[in-house]
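Open question from group meeting: does this chain pack into something compact, or does most of it stay loose? Before anyone orders reagents, we agreed to write out a predicted structure and look at it together. Recording both the input and the output here so the notebook holds the full record.
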Amino acid sequence: MSKIHYFQRYSTLENTVTNNTLQLLARIYSYSPVLASKLLSDITDESVDIGLEITQQRQANKSVPDGTIMQRSFKIILESKVTAPADVHQLLRHAEGFGNEEQKILLLLTVQELGKSTMDEIANSIKNKAKDVIFRNVTYEKICNAVQDLFQPHENEMNDLVDDYVEYCNDTGLFDQSSYLMRIVPCGNSLDLNKKYGIYFQPADRGYTKHSYIGIYAQKTVQCLWEIDAVFDITYDGTTIEKTHVQGTVTDAYDDKIIEVIAEAKKMCGYDVQRGYRFFCGKEAVPTNYVKVSSGGIQGARLTNLKNIVGAFDTANELARKLSEKTWE
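Structure tokens returned:
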């Protein structure tokens, strides 16, 4: 089944990035104002309080009322850039768009951080024009990193929302984390087959985000992994194999293995994968023992940023060793 996306992908990027980011924030706010406050505080490095503050018998100017209900006034103006450079004059006009809010933050979203000289020029210009406006340059990568740690493992719908936003940013080049991405895929009947050949297959129309590693998951454990060398969509008529290149090396080196996988998938699992399937090929499957410690399994594939888990690594063997020393939820 094709994956349903929360965030639009198919219009002009400049027209969708702001809408998708605002939709992300709106969905999180609707779910939990407290978590929306945490996210905004994390990405702006300012304390952003959302919602009511209720206090009892707090000293006022000339009295001590029995109770107080108040809400802090704030406004965040957001300007998104993808390929266009930062426009100082545009940002100055935005800075003049604030009113009497208690907290005023102007956010410039960019693919890469601004250089120091550009950042200083913009910040000083805004300070001279509107001294109480806080200016922040935030990358899409920073938003993704902040939002990925926001929800607990059991909050499935919100985690799916976050995953789709991160995939959207990665797919559209707002930042490229693909060299550190491992896709953990649950395997049942095909487990031994995947391990044996270092090849994983799935329907070609299933959602796809570029990634560099496959982790084979069963019984609450990533049991092996490999670095992806080539990805192909396959059509095989029993004699001739036709390949559509998707990612990685353009090669015929995996043809024989793919044909063997197709035959054994039919014989061992009852799967007909001769056409309409995508094959993720690696040079070898490396054993690991990356254990999921939270209750329950995973409902579908899960993307994981390896850099955030194990730091730097040079080979699949080193990655497998480091993951064996970790657990996940």
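Observations to bring back to the group:
The longest strand covers residues 221-236.
The chain is about 35% helix and 30% strand.
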